[in-house]
């Protein structure tokens, strides 16, 4: 049995910029979720999440020892930090587009392990 959760419930993300390129790091809170995220959060799925920004290329780099992924998205910052008229020229808030992706996890996963709380 599985259930659907938003990626934000099992992972954290940070972004940075280099010109018109967005660098997005996605880290699983529990390393046990790494294979699930690896199977479901592909470069194609991230491209779909950023469809409105029309990335010309999305590459995923796997970091299994860190239970993390590095996504590099080209041409999504409206010309880059110095050229963009957007309020978020560095793209710092764009990680929320990825964290909103729904993923299927094992139904027996407890809320405690999802939210990272300790009793």
SSE blueprint and pairings:
Layout lengths: L1 E5 L4 E8 L2 E8 L5 H7 L2 H7 L7 E7 L4 E7 L20 H5 L2 E5 L4 H5 L4
Antiparallel strand pairs: 1-6, 2-3, 3-5, 4-5
Overview of this protein structure:
The protein is an alpha+beta fold. It is built from 4 helices and 6 strands; from the N terminus they run E-E-E-H-H-E-E-H-E-H. It has a single domain, classed as 2-Layer Sandwich (Alpha-Beta Plaits). The strands form 2 sheets. A 4-stranded antiparallel sheet has the order 2-3-5-4. The protein has a two-stranded antiparallel ribbon with strand order 1-6. A hairpin with a 2-residue loop joins strand 2 and strand 3. The longest helix has 7 residues, at 34-40.
Q: Count of DSSP helices?
A: 4
Q: Please give the number of β-strands.
A: 6
Largest sheet: 4 strands, antiparallel
Name given to the CATH architecture = 2-Layer Sandwich
Indicate the structural class. Answer: alpha+beta
Q: Which consecutive residue ranges, at least 5 long each, have pLDDT under 50?
A: 87-91
Q: What share of the residues lie within helices? A: 10-25%
Strand content bin: 25-35%
**Helix/strand order:** EEEHHEEHEH
Strand order of the largest sheet: 2-3-5-4
* Total of domains: 1
Features:
alpha+beta; four-stranded antiparallel sheet; two-stranded antiparallel sheet; 6 strands
Outline of this structure?
With 119 residues, this protein is an alpha+beta fold. The chain has four helices and six strands; from the N terminus they run βββααββαβα.
């Amino acid at each position: 049995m599985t259930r659907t959760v938003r990626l934000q419930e099992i992972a954290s993300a940070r972004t940075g910029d280099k010109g018109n390129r967005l660098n997005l790091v996605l880290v699983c809170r529990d390393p046990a979720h790494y294979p699930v995220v690896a199977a479901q959060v592909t470069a194609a799925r991230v491209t779909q999440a950023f469809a409105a920004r029309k990335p010309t290329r999305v590459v995923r780099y796997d970091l299994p020892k860190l239970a993390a992924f590095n996504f590099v998205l080209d041409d999504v910052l409206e010309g880059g930090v110095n050229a963009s008229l957007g309020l978020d020229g560095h793209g710092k808030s764009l990680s929320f587009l990825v964290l909103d992706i729904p993923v299927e996890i094992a139904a027996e996963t407890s809320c405690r392990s999802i939210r990272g709380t300790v009793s």
